[in-house]
Backbone:
């Protein structure tokens, strides 16, 4: 092998080694971002499950539940007030109830009731802003909006709507 061939071979070897290093670096960054996205998804899922639980247990007939909070006869029973049913304000009244006290900032306006809370994703500096709202056009529905506030990730929103199970028990 001549000197020229050796230099060309060495150059190609260094080029391939450098490219391999970059591919490894990019794959590690992608794996890190995937882990962060998983943590965000877990935080949102956990919080949403907590909210669903509160919605499902609100205005239940307490003497129909066992010590674990499960219905004795297999069916949940609810006791919404006549005023809530007549005015169609079940979700609005839930947001104003003690069940959500300390879980965010409550804001009541003529057209909307909201509770805003900031959720910190564990082991990161990422914040998720959760807004639970009930609008005047239908105070029986809860609108839940999660906004992910992260510099390193593409801005992302997740939304869902919950119905009030107690609504089925309105006269």
Residues:
């Amino acid at each position: 092998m001549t000197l020229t061939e050796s230099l060309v071979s060495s150059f190609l070897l260094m080029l391939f080694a450098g490219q391999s290093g970059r591919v490894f670096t990019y794959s590690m960054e992608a794996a890190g971002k995937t882990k962060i996205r998983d943590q965000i998804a877990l935080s949102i899922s956990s919080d949403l499950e907590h909210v669903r639980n509160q919605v499902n247990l609100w205005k239940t007939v307490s003497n129909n539940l066992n010590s674990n909070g499960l219905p004795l006869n297999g069916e949940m029973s609810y006791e919404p007030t006549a005023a809530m049913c007549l005015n169609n304000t079940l979700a609005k009244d839930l947001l104003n109830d003690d069940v959500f006290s300390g879980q965010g900032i409550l804001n009541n306006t003529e057209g909307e009731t909201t509770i805003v809370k900031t959720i910190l994703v564990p082991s990161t500096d990422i914040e998720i802003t959760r807004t639970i709202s009930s609008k005047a056009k239908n105070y029986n529905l809860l609108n839940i909006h999660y906004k992910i506030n992260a510099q390193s990730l593409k801005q992302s929103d997740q939304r869902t709507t919950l119905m009030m199970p107690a609504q089925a028990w309105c006269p």
In short: Residues 3-57 form the longest helix (55 residues). The first strand starts at residue 105 and ends at 108. The mean pLDDT is 85. Residues 68 and 76 are 13 Å apart (CA to CA).
